[in-house]
């Protein structure tokens, strides 16, 4: 499932390519036809992400997208429409566009391929949304109900700043949870935007037992975890990938580290690059948890 950094990158790309420009909105698949009709012919005003949710504001209407496990946007257009070709779940790269324009000077998009839930089209390009878990148009009260249910998003802090309010909110939500910290981090009402990779990697780097009840963590441990997740998510936005095993880490030169981007995620059965213990994995609330029994206890 795309994690929070991908949604923030997606919001930035939509802001740059679509916001402020009149758009045409359709649903080639048909499942979003009514919502597309509400948005079509208008001008989007801003795009934002909160955790794993994307919101595009169009007057009093808000387009909500949750990519889920399989959703992704693909982008195509002319030389004035540049950006990532796809954002979300992995997709095959699209062929280069040979641009043709209609009488109004708008690029003519290629015929939809596959189950395109929504297509958004501006003068120089278009984007297709496939496979989302949620694709809906909300009014303001519905939008406010959605965000009220979400926990603090580290990527909504001002750039290069750690918000005491957001960190305190995170600490307060953990203090009310008896569940293991590994489960709490996947609860989007505790912290928004963290998925399975950031969960595993942050707990490893904090040397935190994933089974520790969330409410038993010290204030110092919670503050350090918030700082760690903030740094990791910001790196993900900047680089477009989750790379927690950094080139500057001493362990990156280890014989078993060649080509690795992560310390523990999907490396069960191999030796820990820090302590040598065999990395483990188990199911926790329907998701695979990865950790080091040697470092994290």
What does this 3D model show about the protein?
It contains seven helices and eleven strands. The mean pLDDT is 95. It starts with a helix and ends in a 6-residue tail after the last strand. With 297 residues, the chain is an alpha+beta fold. α1 crosses α7, α4 packs across α7 and α6 crosses α7. A hairpin with an 8-residue loop joins β5 and β6. It folds into two domains: 145 residues, Alpha-Beta Barrel (N-terminal domain of MutM-like DNA repair proteins); 141 residues, Helicase, Ruva Protein, domain 3. The strands form three sheets. The chain has a five-stranded antiparallel beta sheet. A four-stranded antiparallel beta sheet has the order 2-3-4-9, sandwiched between helices. The radius of gyration is 21 Å and the shape is globular. The longest helix is centred in the last third of the chain and has 21 residues. Keywords: DNA damage, DNA repair, DNA-binding, Endonuclease, Glycosidase, Hydrolase, Lyase, Metal-binding, Multifunctional enzyme, Nuclease, Zinc, Zinc-finger. One of its GO terms (molecular function) is zinc ion binding. This is DNA-(apurinic or apyrimidinic site) lyase.
SSE arrangement:
Layout: H1 4-17, E1 24-26, H2 33-39, E2 46-50, E3 53-58, E4 61-66, E5 72-77, E6 86-88, E7 116-122, E8 125-130, E9 134-138, H3 140-148, H4 164-175, H5 181-184, H6 196-205, H7 219-239, E10 280-284, E11 287-291
Antiparallel strand pairs: 1-7, 2-3, 3-4, 4-9, 5-6, 5-8, 7-8, 10-11
